[in-house]
Amino acid sequence: MRIAPLSLFVTAALLATSAFAQDTATVNAIESELTAKQAELDNFTTVLDKHIAEETRLQSQLGLLRKRSTELEKEKNQALDAMNEMYRRMIDDPNLDISAAQTRYQQSVATHKQNKDDIAMQLAAIAAQRKDIEQIRVAKHTLVNTLENLKDQLSTARVERLRNEFTREGTLEVEHTINCKRTETLAACEQRGQQLGLQKATKRFIDQIFANLTEQRVVEPKRNIAGAQVQVMSSHVVSSAFSGQGNYTANLSVTMRGDVNGSRLCGLLNIDNRFCSEYGQPLAIGYQSVYPTTYSDAQLSFPEDAPVAPASNTSDTVSVAKMEVAPIVETSLKKSEPLPEKKTTVEFTVRSNVFDDEVFINGVSYGSTKLVTSLAPGMYSLEVRKLGYETYSAQVDLRKARTLNVKLLKKPELIAAPTPKKVEPIVASADNTPKNQTVVIPAGKFMMGDLTGNGLANERPVVEKVLSHSFSMQSTEVTVAQFRQFIERSRYVTDAEKSRGCAHYKNGEPVWDIDYNWKNPGYEQKDSFPVVCVSYEDAKAFADWLTAESGEQYRLPNEVEWEYAARAGSSAEYPWGNEIGRNLANCGWCGSEWSNKSPSPVSEFSPNAYGLYDTVGNVWEWTQKRASQDDVTVRGGAWNFAPSLARVSTRLTLAPDFRANYIGFRLIKER
Predict the structure, then answer these.
(1) Which of 86, 287, 463, 575 is the most buried (most CB within 10 A)?
(2) Is 502 strand, coil or helix?
């Protein structure tokens, strides 16, 4: 069979670049901002390293001055003893010259005093250096958070651009020629030729969409899982004719719009599925859906010698065969004459009472509601699923256009991951001492640090750590109610209340507010919220007081203990896997009702495998520093920090007197 050359006309609607150029401009703008912020972060890192090196030099000089002070003190005492001896000798010999002894003593006193002044100046220089280091570190943490947020924005923009590129609209003109079969009528040959021309137009349209994708190199290798579709908006015959050789040629003008399974966009771009959550649950990689009323590029082929299927055939492969002998009749259709109508599908609409659900028809995912699709008449098995809700199942007899309103019922208990059953973390004691339920963390070993390669520089290298003894850890962060009992009974005054107040983010920048403290952190809080605006020293004071009150030894966990307990035997970034998901924790842009607003009440989300709540997000937690350390590390992420900073291995280093409305703590009880 001879197929005439395909003439292709792509309208301005398909190649119009204004909307897509805007998407690309958005992506480029975010990438430029990322580059600028990364350069700024690199500069901050360099400046910070220089300040730390300068502080180390000053500390070394201070050590030398203190060592010299001991020597000068000894010299002063020796000079004093020598002068006193000369005074005693002068009693017997009034003419004795003691000026040399006096001069030695005077010089030793002056030298010792100067050394003490130098020590005071050195301490002042170190204090100023430490203040600069604190400011640089806080600014650097802000930049890190900004960078991670920009990365999220970039992923969102890339997904939106790809979705818009897949759903563009355009018109193709297709000229297609076939041989009529001896056994078919002219009308049947005409209908078959036009149908095959229409199918070829949809295939070429999909080819054009893929060829014009901005990230074509990234997406093309995964073309078979894209779920790309074409919806025919309108079509008409421009011209058609039968030839003397038994051929039928049709010139069609077809207006089409692309479509794609939105939940697969993240897989195509190799990014976290949470950026596609608004388009439905992600589908399994490698699964190819079947779309009865549309044609994808993988479903169309045109072999030369395969047998012909009837015009009404709906199989995946469309075949065209030669006709042995056929009558020769010439006809022509008027330009813009509509194709012969043959309605073979009906519209089916599914709505539900929830977002982010997933609709399955005969086991095939059709994305999330509201769903509008066209199906051939018949019986269908329908399921609507959503994590935490009972699955809706029904048999649908589809004979005419129909809308189905589905009501999903919430399960009695929503569990985000295979974790222990939620327990009440706060219990009362007979002596009214604030109690926080503790859980036993077993002895063991683990790999500590950035196991996936997605972390910051201070999370490397990865090292194996061994904990030879089990320990108990508070299942939640210390709450406002528990801290209030400490304040009322000990009369303790926090660092924030003494001076300067508490740090917080305002318009994306860290600022201090003199009026902010643990009672007033800048947002409305309840007794069940984690206490914040507390410094490392405040946390230690609480632990010391609780130890004295309870008779049991409490302290902050060190970094090894904290990460071991937070991992709970997992090597993933989070207790449930390597993706943050949605509404599984309270961190910035994590999809919870508190995200970027405030901490949540403790134990609002499911615990990890050891029974610890809120090790992901909510508030950063102080850890115990070694005696040789000047700075302290916080772990766990917070309600206003990016999800990537809530990973189990993330570390932020701060000064012990720093406090902010996103930092709290939990304690270990010695066994």
Answers:
(1) 575
(2) strand
